[in-house]
Amino acid sequence: MIPLLADVLICPACLPEENELVCQVSLESQDDIVSGTLDCRSCGVQYPISEGVAFLLPPSHDGEETVPSRYETPSLLSSYLWSHYADLCQDPDAHPAYQEWANLMEARPGPFLDAGCAVGRFTFDMSRKYDFAVGIDNSATFVRTARALRMNRGLKVEIAEEGRLTRPFHINLPGDMQPDKIDFIVADVTAIPFPADLFSGLATLNIVDKVPDPLLHLKEMDRVALGSGARLIFSDPFSWTEEAADKALWLGGTGEGPHAGRGAPNVAALLEGRDGHLSPAWEIERQGSVWWKIRNHANHFELIRSCFIKARR
Ligand SMILES: C[S@@+](CC[C@H](N)C(=O)[O-])C[C@H]1O[C@@H](n2cnc3c(N)ncnc32)[C@H](O)[C@@H]1O
Fold first, then answer.
1. How far is the CA of 206 from the centre of ligand 1 (A)?
2. Distance between Cα 116 and ligand 1 center (Å)
3. pTM
4. How many separate helices (H) and strands (E) can be counted in the chain?
5. From the alpha carbon of 244, which atom of ligand 1 is closest?
6. Are residues 121 and 261 in the same domain?
7. What is the pLDDT along the chain (313 residues), one digit of tens a residue?
């Protein structure tokens, strides 16, 4: 973990109180904290830093599941590595979705937050446009892989081909993606371990329909965004499921309740200040959609229409 993060991280278990964490370093190497702890003097929780990765999940969100998240499995790791990096590997089936989302973001000063970063592609993209980019995800497998990419400027992995067969997949980061301006941590997008009013750029791509409390995720993004001078890229296919969130908490896809109707206009209205959940209100700059592809194996792809909203305040 880059030492400058230790100075800004706060305790996610204490939210909405923002209590700073005290970093105890056990092993440090070349501007990187390899192992240690981040301690909250207020609630007593100690968050480990292990093999360079900080684990900032609040205790109530950590280890309570009996079945591991599907985002920890080798098959999803293979799918997301392809989805994030196939275009950089000149794969003939690649899609330009991450470039299209990146093109919506202008270069700006200040730090960038990629919430639900998976294996890190958009975080690397934003290192070209912001002073620093941090990716957070609650999948330790994804975050460790993103960090390995950052440390080695690339990765040689095997991805699913068919049945038990795999094929080599070699990722080399382009020279202008800047690993020293990036870090990845394990954290929850509904209890973000950063203080209010910090990020000048933020992304929430394809995650609002994956969390147990979608509105809480948007409120957390709103909290950590600058009150003035922030840019946000939101995108989602609105694949609501009761497996991810109770139907009463969906932000669309239902005929009843405060968020009846379709997800895109509801999220746009929330950003614009409906019901006062997000404040100060955001101004919508652009709306549209991007075709996003996930590869399960050589002959099985998912083609997903992800609806984006670009906003500023
Ligand atoms: C559908 S994927 C999208 C990943 C990435 N943003 C993209 O567009 O390629 C959803 C991601 O959210 C992560 N995730 C799900 N729930 C989360 C939570 N509560 N906190 C942090 N990450 C979460 C998963 O591990 C996964 O990487």
1. 7
2. 4
3. 0.96
4. 7, 13
5. 16
6. yes
7. 999 999 999 999 999 999 999 999 999 998 899 999 999 999 999 999 999 999 999 997 655 555 568 888 888 999 999 999 999 999 999 999 999 999 999 999 999 999 999 999 999 999 999 999 999 999 999 999 999 999 999 999 999 999 999 999 999 999 888 888 999 999 999 999 999 999 999 999 999 999 999 999 999 999 999 999 999 999 999 999 999 999 999 999 999 999 999 999 999 999 999 999 999 999 999 999 999 999 999 999 999 999 999 999 9
Using a 6 Å cutoff on CB, does residue 57 contact ligand 1? Answer: no
Q: How far is CA 130 from CA 99, 115, 161, 238, 288, in A?
A: 16, 15, 36, 28, 24
The parent domain of residue 180 ranges over 66-312
Q: What is the dihedral of CA 312, 85, 157, 123, to 10 degrees?
A: -20
Could you tell me the strand order of the sheet in which 21-28 lies? 21-28, 33-40, 46-50, 53-54
Distance CA 226, CA 129 (A): 17
Domain total of the chain? 2
Boundary-marking domain end, from 64, 85, 114: 64
Among 36, 64, 92, residue at a domain's last position: 64
Residue 292 pairs with which residues in a beta bridge? 304
